[in-house]
Amino acid sequence: MSKLSEYKLTLIYALRDLSRNYKKISSIILTLFISLFILSSIFTIEDSLNKELNNNSRALLGGDIEIDYNRNVGNLELINQVKEFATVSQMVEFSTMISTTNQSKNKSIFSRIKTVDQNYPLFGKVGYEPSGAFEKLQTIENTILVNENIFKNLNLKINDKIKVQDQLFTVIGIVKSVPDIGGAFVFGDFALAGKQTLELLKLNNLGSFLNYEYKVKFNEGDNPNTLSKKIEQLFKNEKKVRIRYHEKSDGPLKRIIDNFSQFLSLVSISAMLIAGIGIANTLLSFINQNNMSIAVKKSLGFFSKDIKIVYYLQLLILLFIISTAAYSFSFFLVPIVDVYLSAGLGLNIEGSFSILNYFKVFLVGLLVLIIFSIPTINAIDQVKASNLFRNVFQNLQFYYSKKSILLSLLLLSILISLFTIGSARPVYSLGYFGAFFVCLLVFYLLSNLIIKLFKGLKEHPNISIKVSVKNITQTKSITPITIMSLGLGVTLLLTLAFVGSNFKREIAKSIPELAPDYFFIGIQSDERQIFEDLIFDMDKEANLEIVPMVSTGIVKINGIDPNTYIDSSNDSHWVIRNDRRSSWADKVLKDNPIVEGKWWDLDRPDKLQISLDSKIAKDFDIKIGDIFTLNIYGREIEGEIVNFRLVDYRDFSINFAMLLNPQFAKNIPHEYLATSKFKSLENFNETALLDKMPSLSIIKITDYLEKVTDLLNKVFIAVTVISAITIVIGLIVISSAIIVQGKIKEFQNLIFKILGFSKVEVILSSIIEFFIIFTSIILIALFFAIIGSQFIIENIFQITWKFDLAIFLQVTIGIGLATLILIMITNFKYLSPKVYPLIRNQ
């Protein structure tokens, strides 16, 4: 009971002391709140998205189970057996051109069309307007619903006529969203049509990217597991079918969410660690201001341990309040994100309280607080009760012991583990933390080097320069703190700025210069000459490239089904997911140089030989001489890997993951794929070309580049804003460091005042001091930013990196001015110290 009473009194005292002094630690409150708010927002939005995906997994897939036959109609007898115990909805997706009927408009759009039956959708709802439009699809022939982008770009009105291949369709409405999102239905142009549409169009060519899907909905009360196993048994001998379950329908989308949230989480923990530096300094300032109060407690018989407990208790109370506020405020971001997602993806998210997420936010805040407060609160050991009688101000410093260092390292390991274990890519997280701490160490060493160099300089005649040098090199200088906190923030922001500028430059400038104007898909063998004549009639100087194309699927690698050991986390998993388009060539392509192996063996014309993308070979651990079993028009044919090519997909020229030897492949039924770059785009008439070749698909490269650029701009804005917050936190850290020096600054400026220094000279010395430090920060930050951004651009995006002087100057000048203004404002209150109170040591 005695101990309980003691703990209660300690808690009451800690609360009272905190209520009296909360203004003195306002920078701790601010930096901690901003950091925890970012972290809370990421956790809350990610959790809300995952719950939305899980709760609507059936709607996202379109059923309890999806039976996907890809380009084949499938075994209708088995499908009919499924209909005996479940509801089945058949839908067929294909790509084709949608064109205006007015020749003067000459407009067409490459679109993805989904034909649906009367059962669609089994789950969820289709968003459309006007009322009743969706129901007309099955009752009125040749009707179609187009998305808003098609409606706008083709300048359509309700009941207008459009052409799909050589058939006329009536636009009866606009489709705003579909529940089963995916592929072009997320970012591309799409439309909905009735089931009867399939009978009107020619959809046998490869350019249609035809896909037959059967969605299955179990009856209410039936056992899903039992029926799922029954369907598996029915289709176990069907080689061309792929069965998907609603639990995994959000796979690609979830991976995007996981990867993006992982990156933002790492940025937020960087902000927290930078904030930790400010927390340590502000706390040290707070303890210094309570120096005499601590001495009084010790003279009354308090032990250092008891006083430390009070301070730790205050931090714990503060953390509980701040983490609760930060987590609560994070829910205000959910409606903002929901507006974007509901418009773009048809997802509706709602924020919900998660005790686990709240605990993670609190735990991260607790770990950061303890790690950075240990050396500060340990400084209490330096205060002596005798200071009370001597009336001496003792400026405390950080104090480390072997135990405190080991404890800090242990807590830091736990913190890193929280953001590494269970993350989408643990190796990336470890690499990020490694780079972060290397940068921190370098900036710390840089600060010591600057101090050492300036200590060795000879006396300078200019008073302002001499004062600034002394400020930099003095024992309790804020130079290390400024360089570390600001240096890390500038490095992060510069790196992301360079990545963004390089990526957008490559898309906006380099790629359009190299890329063709159009891709033409679905040219039949008997139409090749017609196609060439039509193109050259429009533009005699057009640069036209035509290559053969055949559909191939990798069934086995060295006799083993690749799906049994290559999972979706593999970068090249897309190669085995569905049938791929392959081609052949007589000679080595200029933009596809061989990096290993030899070109075709002409002595074996009757044997299939394969040239493989070197990146895919590396991801699949393929060696020269390995055997691929390909499915080519229903036949399984074995082929030997004879060489690896370095494939550059970035220029939008014709590239294939696999090339076949022409001696073998030329006898395979095939179509043609073409690209064209026109001398004069005005002469190209899409509508006229489609009138002659209605089954042709035309992809305009600039349309897709604009969509990609728009998406990337939004992503980089979000990332840059969050990264810029680290700079704000760094500035608060610097401000708190200056406050720590407050007493020293007051005494220093008092001496200057007595000696007759003007305010201008004092301000000038601060500006010189800032420029010396900031120049050093920028040089090192630029070095790290160049290395980091170049690695990301050349190794991850695999495009050319270039230094962007304009971005560098914008970031540098912006941060420099903001920092200088903050330093001036923070120092301003120390420019006119009162002489007599300081002389009396009051």
UniProtKB/TrEMBL annotation:
Residues 29-234 form the MacB-like periplasmic core domain. Keywords: Cell membrane, Membrane, Transmembrane, Transmembrane helix. InterPro entries: ABC3_permease_C, MacB_PCD, Membrane_comp_ABC_pdt. It is found in: Cell membrane. Residues 266-378 form the ABC3 transporter permease C-terminal domain. The chain crosses the membrane at residues 25-45, 263-288, 309-337, 357-380, 405-424, 430-451, 478-500, 715-740, 760-793, 805-825. It holds the Pfam family FtsX. GO terms for cellular component: plasma membrane. It is a multi-pass membrane protein. This is Predicted ABC-type transport system protein.
